[in-house]
Design brief:
- The protein has about 270 residues and is an alpha/beta fold.
- It folds into two domains: about 180 residues, 3-Layer(aba) Sandwich (Rossmann fold), CATH 3.40.50; about 80 residues, SIR2/SIRT2 'Small Domain' (2-Layer Sandwich), CATH 3.30.1600.10.
- About 35% of the residues lie in helices and about 15% in strands.
- It has nine helices and nine strands.
- It has a six-stranded parallel sheet, with helices on both faces. Strands 5-4-6 form a three-stranded antiparallel sheet, covered by helices on one side.
- Helix 8 links the parallel strand 7 and strand 8.
- The chain is globular and about 55 Å long.
- The two termini are about 20 Å apart.
- The relative contact order is 0.20.
- The N terminus is likely disordered.
- The structure holds ligand BJW and zinc ion.
- Zinc ion (ZN) binds next to loops.
Amino acid sequence: MGAPRLDRVDESLSDALRRGRALLAQAERIVVLTGAGVSAESGVPTFRGPGGLWKSRRPEELATPEAFARDPRLVWEWYAWRRSVVATCAPNAAHLALARLALRHRDTLIVTQNVDGLHHRAADDVAARSTEPVGPDRAYPLEVHGAIHRDRCSGCGRRTPGGPVDATDEATLPRCGTCGGLLRPDVVWFGESLDPDVLARAFEAAARAEVCLVVGTSSVVYPAAAVPEATLAGGGAVVEVNPDVTPLSARANVSLRGKAAEVLPALLSL
Ligand code: BJW
Ligand code: ZN
């Protein structure tokens, strides 16, 4: 599609909004990549940056298979706390605007790095209120880093719904009803592979998309950070929504410097 690469640093938000809306209005195929920033205004902490989850802990202490093998109680304590935070949060205006886009615009795929389930809940909310006979599944995201509300057996791999976890002692941690193995959160840690089928669907959609809308991610964690690169390689455009500059910003066709819950409703009211 080859949209012009204008100077993105000095352009005003309203000018960027106009350009982003024009790109989206022309696009038949849209892929959306979201990260922790899309849920920030729901009260879910981001990972990096001020107030991020990793200001006090290093990722390799908690989000790796080695950390879980070394101290499963510590890792479960962190995830049990995060589950309890997510349980009090609700989708915000950004999740709802994206769900509306995906329900209205047939060829839209939401790819999320988030494990909080808020895109899924937004799709249910919007579909339930819609007068159109469209099921919510069209707006369900591809969750490339898994889901915090699910458990997976570290022995047999069986997935089960997660509940409250007593992480006071290793003996109280949840165990698999089938093989007795230790359960873990069903998320993707550093050094672990993402589900190849899920990843293939994300990259296929990105490569054929005319626009990749990238919202609230620091764009440093691979392979998810390569999703917009696939759109650019296929001749499509990238629209970034983030209050801060990221490693992707220099290659984005449009950069909207603002908060997702403020920018997306304005951008997507096509
Ligand atoms: C707002 C906002 C508002 C604030 N509105 N915006 C290629 C190159 C280099 C390294 C690698 C590579 N390929 C693989 C690697 C290794 C590694 C990696 O990428 N490392 C880099 C960090 C250097 N990747 C992996 O290990 C992956 N596995 C893999 O590739 O397997 C194959 C392999 C194996 C072994 C060796 C090599 C290859 C797995 C990655 C799994 C990531 N898992 C986590 C934890 C998930 C579970 C959990 O939640 O606990 O996923 S890490 C964490 O980072 C989480 C996130 O999904 C992910 C991305 O973070 P995100 O979403 O971008 O959040 P933040 O906090 O970083 O950014 C928030 C942004 O929002 C900021 O920009 C703010 O400005 C913005 N914001 N408020 C809009 N209101
Ligand atoms: Zn098992």
